[in-house]
Amino acid sequence: MTFVRFMESVSGRSLRVAVGLVLFVVGAVLGGPWWVLAAVGLVPIAAGVFNFCLLAPFLGAPLRPHSSGA
To answer: Does a structural domain hold residue 15?
Structure first.
């Protein structure tokens, strides 16, 4: 659950967006069949922006973190 807690944090969200951007840029720069990598990069970008973690349900946590009431 430590991993899930990290991914729910601001640092985890930032990491998801950064990894997604790297995948997207590499796929876009390489072109050709590598466009698939760019498309896959959109998933972690969306996960970070909309605050969900696709791995969390596999680790026994909810897809979206509980709100902190803020």
So the answer is: yes
